[in-house]
């Protein structure tokens, strides 16, 4: 995956994102849309996965047919909002290994604080897809990827729904080897580190908390 940033402009992605941004979309609809959109984003973030061939028999004859190569992928969800994207990607890649990084954002410093880290073994041999819907300041994402690299990951990509220009820049500086796939790059961050126009707090929108 050569480009550092891929914005998925597919009409279905953009349509669903608009519905998600709308403040009148309630949690149940928001979660459903997030799951649907994650299928489409997963398609893009896995576009360059390596395939091998295997021999199978169709009802008509034997054939050589493509199959994903290498060890099972690792999907890493940055809690808690990452879980919304995770579910949809697991629909498509059910055999993936799953890990969780728990980071919350200190609302004053906007810096990430780690409270949980549990990832699959053998990260160094796996394609690792890190998921978090919002790439805002980039602080949590950069910190999560720092931890994953320390745990051995070398082939990482980052999937989000919305990004702010600051977050994209921060990721590019800190982890130029990690491609970012998103549905949109919004205008800016506000003083509280929220993406504008954005969609609000993704975790709150998903789970109906405030
Ligand atoms: N996290 C969110 O959920 N929303 C933002 O706009 C920024 C960070």
Mind telling me the C-alpha Rg? 17 Å
Based on the structure given, which CATH architecture is correct? 3-Layer(aba) Sandwich
- Total number of strands: 14
**Count of all domains:** 1
Structural class: alpha/beta
Q: Summarize the main sheet.
A: 7 strands, mixed
Give the structure's gist in a few sentences.
The protein has 210 residues and is α/β, with parallel strands linked by helices.
Task: Describe this entry's structure for a reader.
The protein has 210 residues and is of the alpha/beta class. The chain has a single domain (5-199), classed as Rossmann fold (3-Layer(aba) Sandwich). It has six helices and 14 strands. It has helices spanning 11-21, 27-45, 82-92, 139-150, 165-174, 202-207; strands spanning 5-7, 51-57, 62-68, 74-79, 97-105, 112-118, 127-131, 134-135, 155-159, 162-163, 180-182, 184-185, 188-189, 195-196. Strands 1-11-9-7-4-5-6 form a seven-stranded mixed sheet, with helices on both faces. The protein has a three-stranded parallel sheet with strand order 8-10-12. Strand 4, helix 3 and strand 5 (97-105) form a beta-alpha-beta unit. Helix 1 (11-21) runs antiparallel to helix 2. The longest helix is centred in the first third of the chain and has 19 residues, at 27-45. The radius of gyration is 17 Å and the shape is globular. The N and C termini lie far apart (37 Å). 37% of the residues are buried. The model has no long low-confidence stretch (mean pLDDT 95). Bound molecules: uracil. Uracil binds at residues 81, 134, 136, 193-195, 198, 201-203.
């Amino acid at each position: 995956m050569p480009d550092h940033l891929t914005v998925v402009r597919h009409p279905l992605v953009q349509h669903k994102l608009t519905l998600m941004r709308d403040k009148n979309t309630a949690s149940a609809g928001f979660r459903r849309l997030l799951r649907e959109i994650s299928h489409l984003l997963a398609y893009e973030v896995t576009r360059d996965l390596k395939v091998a061939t295997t021999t199978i028999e169709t009802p008509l004859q034997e054939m050589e047919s493509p199959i994903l190569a290498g060890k099972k992928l690792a999907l890493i969800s940055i809690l808690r909002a990452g879980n919304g994207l995770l579910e949809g990607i697991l629909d498509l890649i059910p055999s993936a290994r799953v890990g969780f990084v728990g980071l919350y954002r200190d609302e004053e410093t906007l810096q990430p604080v780690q409270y949980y880290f549990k990832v699959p073994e053998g990260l160094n041999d796996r394609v690792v897809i890190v998921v978090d819907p919002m790439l805002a300041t980039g602080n949590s994402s950069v910190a999560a990827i720092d931890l994953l690299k320390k745990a051995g990951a070398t082939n990482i990509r980052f999937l989000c729904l919305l990004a702010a220009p600051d977050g994209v820049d921060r990721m590019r500086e800190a982890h130029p080897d990690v491609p970012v796939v998103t549905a949109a790059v919004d205008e800016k961050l506000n003083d509280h580190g929220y993406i504008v126009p954005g969609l609000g707090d993704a975790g709150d929108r998903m789970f109906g908390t405030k």
